């Protein structure tokens, strides 16, 4: 076991963020709400600095294997920190526009980032649970951050209650796994899983099913998605932008690590559970989105379907499958950032747009924004040669190569069905007459437009150039993983 100094070097980014969050909290307590902009700037700098620390930190294990620093963890942490920094930027403009200046917002995001970083570096069930709860507690508060809004309060309460239920499932599954394996460490659990594969006790599988159910809640996969539409609709838009990106990336990496490292020997058993979750997510995400009129609820159902696609890479149980999942999630969160940046940059009558019908005739008042939103819509629905197509190409290909071609075909059908609601958005913007004048917000034109344009540029066909550096990164991150 490495000494404390070596362990702290491995967890340098997490320690830096935790200490930094405490310092920022004290700064806000002394300076009051007038320090909100300063704390937001410092939080972004802290998250970007943590990304650099994660890249340069040594690889290895710490705290008796409870903390793992490997290429997969580094990839996940850099993505999480940068996505969290974007959420701080979007939230700063939102607070300025709504005149809700609270310094706790960026601090909560930094604390959530610490929990998400612990999730992707978890080496045992205890660190897994601590990471999940640390980031979840911060997200519960963020969901209800606009406390004067009844919908936000309802979103926070629903998220908290259902989150407690999922934590119970996860803890029960972890207790069963510990009882039948005698260890919390994934490496030791893997030995017990091999005995199950050889005809040993099946109690470990029951624990694994409960564990998967708890984790499925965190990624909002069906049928554990019940919180997602209401929280997406009620929470502030920049908070939803965070929910749709960083926590999902962290949870997907965690699912891949748990199943690959701890239960690779019984891949056939847990793959059956994930296949059912994938199919349910396809149906709920594709069909449920058709009836939506609220933009953020629509994006919630879209996220459910897309999580099903991402899980296909894990179902494959191969190194190529994990690489495909990382590629898909990276491209998907970039598109999501662009979507929410567009929503934050538009208003009607001084209020943010929420209904899909509010986009009618957008090309006449905001032609560049219309082009950006069209590119992002085509990308998410998987239209070639946009980035979303390449993400689905990788996960469907990995699943088919592993023998799950029927599940991949079902995902392809669901993708075609879900294309309807994105094509409806495009039709409204380009061909329907405008309801009235649609204006850009005065408080956040630069940040939101810049992020939207950057996301659209990455979703454009030139993403092929981007794949030349993204693909090697995902190969390195996925190295050494797969069903054992």
Automatic annotation (TrEMBL):
Domain NADH:quinone oxidoreductase/Mrp antiporter transmembrane, chain residue ranges per copy: 122-416
GO molecular function: NADH dehydrogenase (quinone) (non-electrogenic) activity; NADH dehydrogenase (ubiquinone) activity; quinone binding
GO cellular component, one term: plasma membrane
Keyword Metal-binding assigned: no
EC annotation from Swiss-Prot or TrEMBL: 7.1.1.-
This protein's UniProt keywords: Cell membrane, Membrane, NAD, Quinone, Translocase, Transmembrane, Transmembrane helix, Transport, Ubiquinone
InterPro entries: NADH-Q_OxRdtase_suN/2, ND/Mrp_TM
Keyword Cell membrane assigned: yes
Reaction(s) this enzyme catalyzes, per UniProt: a quinone + NADH + 5 H(+)(in) = a quinol + NAD(+) + 4 H(+)(out)
Pfam family, one: Proton_antipo_M
GO annotation, biological process: ATP synthesis coupled electron transport
Annotated NCBIfam families: NDH_I_N, PRK05777.1-3
Entries under HAMAP family matching the protein: NDH1_NuoN_1 (MF_00445)
Protein role: NDH-1 shuttles electrons from NADH, via FMN and iron-sulfur (Fe-S) centers, to quinones in the respiratory chain. The immediate electron acceptor for the enzyme in this species is believed to be ubiquinone. Couples the redox reaction to proton translocation (for every two electrons transferred, four hydrogen ions are translocated across the cytoplasmic membrane), and thus conserves the redox energy in a proton gradient.
Protein name: NADH-quinone oxidoreductase subunit N
Organism: Brevundimonas halotolerans
């Amino acid at each position: 076991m490495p000494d404390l100094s070596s362990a702290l070097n491995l967890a340098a980014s997490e320690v830096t963020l935790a200490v930094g969050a405490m310092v920022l909290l004290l700064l806000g307590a002394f300076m009051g709400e007038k320090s909100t902009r300063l704390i937001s700037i410092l939080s972004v700098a802290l998250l970007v600095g943590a990304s650099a620390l994660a890249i340069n930190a040594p690889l290895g294990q710490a705290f008796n294997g409870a903390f793992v620093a490997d290429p997969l963890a580094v990839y996940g942490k850099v993505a999480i920190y940068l996505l969290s920094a974007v959420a701080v930027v979007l939230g700063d403009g939102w607070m300025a526009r709504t005149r809700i200046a609270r310094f706790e917002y960026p601090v909560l995001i930094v604390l959530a980032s610490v929990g998400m970083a612990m999730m992707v570096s978890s080496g045992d069930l205890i660190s897994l649970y601590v990471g999940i709860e640390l980031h979840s507690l911060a997200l519960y508060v963020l969901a209800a951050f606009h406390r004067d809004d009844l919908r936000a309060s309802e979103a926070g309460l629903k998220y908290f209650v259902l989150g407690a239920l999922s934590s119970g499932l996860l803890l029960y599954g972890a207790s069963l796994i510990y009882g039948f394996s005698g260890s919390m460490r994934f490496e030791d659990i893997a030995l017990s899983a091999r005995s199950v594969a050889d005809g040993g006790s099946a109690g470990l599988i029951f624990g694994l099913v409960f564990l998967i159910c708890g984790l499925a809640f965190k990624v909002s996969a069906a049928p554990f998605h019940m919180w997602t539409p209401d929280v997406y609709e009620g929470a502030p838009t920049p908070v939803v932008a965070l929910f749709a990106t960083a926590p999902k990336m962290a949870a997907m990496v965690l699912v891949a690590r748990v199943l690959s490292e701890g239960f690779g020997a019984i891949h056939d058993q847990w793959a059956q559970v994930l296949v059912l979750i994938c199919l349910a997510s396809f149906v709920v995400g594709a069909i449920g989105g058709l009836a939506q009129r609220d933009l953020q609820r629509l994006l919630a159902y879209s996220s459910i379907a897309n999580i099903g696609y991402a899980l296909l890479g894990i179902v494959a149980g191969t190194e190529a499958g994990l690489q495909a999942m990382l590629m898909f999630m990276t491209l998907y969160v970039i598109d999501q950032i662009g979507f929410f940046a567009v929503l934050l940059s538009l208003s009607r009558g001084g209020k943010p747009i929420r209904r899909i019908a509010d986009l009618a005739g957008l090309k006449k008042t905001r032609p560049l924004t219309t082009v950006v939103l069209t590119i992002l819509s085509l990308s998410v629905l998987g239209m070639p040669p946009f980035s979303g197509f390449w993400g689905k190409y990788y996960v469907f290909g990995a699943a088919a190569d592993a023998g799950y071609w029927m599940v991949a075909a079902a995902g392809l059908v669901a993708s075609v069905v879900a294309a309807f609601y994105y094509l409806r958005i495009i039709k409204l913007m380009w061909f329907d007459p405008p309801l009235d004048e649609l204006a850009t917000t005065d408080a956040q034109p630069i940040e939101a437009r810049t992020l939207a344009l950057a996301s659209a540029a990455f979703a454009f066909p030139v993403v092929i150039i981007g794949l030349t550096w993204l693909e090697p990164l995902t190969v390195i991150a996925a190295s050494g993983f797969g069903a054992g």
